Amino acid sequence: MTKIDHIVFDIGKVLIHWDPQLVYLDLIPDADERQHFLNNICSPEWNLEQDRGRDWREAEDLLIADHPDKADWIRAYRGDWIKSVPHAYDDVAAVYSGLIEAGHDVTLLTNFNQHTFLEAREKFEFLTLARGETVSGDVRLVKPDPAIYAHHTSQQELDPANTLFIDDSANNIAAARQFGWQAVHFAGLEGAPKLQAALAEYGVNS
Fold first, then answer.
1. Which helix (H) or strand (E) holds 9?
2. Residue from 69, 78, 67 nearest 115 by CA
C-alpha cells in the first residue's frame, strides 16, 4: 500500500453543513416554490460561478435583469448566506483536528467563494488549523477541473501518489483519482466512524 503523506479535505458537506434552502425557509415558505427558485434562478450553476470568483454584485445583477420581481430573494442568497452553514459536523471536524494534532500534513481544497470562505473560517475556527488551502474563488478554478488539483499539488508541495483526498462529490473524487491522488468519497452526514474506517484502510490514524 502506498504510504499517505498528505491528506486533503474538502469543506462543504464534509466538515461543515451547507444547504442554501436554509436561507429561504421564511422568505419562500412553500417548499416546491423554494426548490424551483434554487433549481432555476439561484441555481447550482449560477452559484458555481461565484465559487469561480465572480463578483456577487455582478451575479445578482444578471439574475435581477431577468427576474426583477425576485430581486429581494436573489440578494438574500448572499446577504443571508451565513444561514446556509449553520453548523459543523463536529465528530468529523474532531477527526480532522486529530489528524493535525497527530502530526499529519493536512490541507484544504474547496469550491468556495473567496469572500464567503472568510466568513466560514471566522465562524468555524478549526478551518484555520490546516497547513494551507486552495479556495476556488481565489484561484478562479473549480473542481473537478484538473487544473485546480495541479495548482494545489504545486502550491502545497504534495506528492500526488502519496496524497489522500476526501470529498463528498463523486465527480471531484473521480477527477482527483485521474490526476493521480488517492481519494475517499465521503459526506459529513455519514459520520466520523465511517471516515476513520476509510482512513485506516490507507494506514492513517488520528
1. strand 6-9
2. 78
How much is the mean pLDDT over the chain?
97
* Domain positions in the chain: 6-17+86-201, 20-84
Condensed to tens digits (0 to 9), the pLDDT of residues 8-52 reads 999 999 999 999 999 999 999 999 999 999 999 999 999 999 999
Grid cell digits, residue 100 = 493535525
pTM listed for this prediction: 0.96
3-state secondary structure 45-82: HHHHHHHCCCCHHHHHHHHHHHCHHHHHHHHHHHHCHH
- At residue 205 the predicted structure's pLDDT band, cuts being 50, 70 and 90, is confident
Domain 6-17+86-201: CATH superfamily is HAD superfamily/HAD-like (3.40.50.1000)
Q: Which pLDDT score is estimated for 1?
A: 65
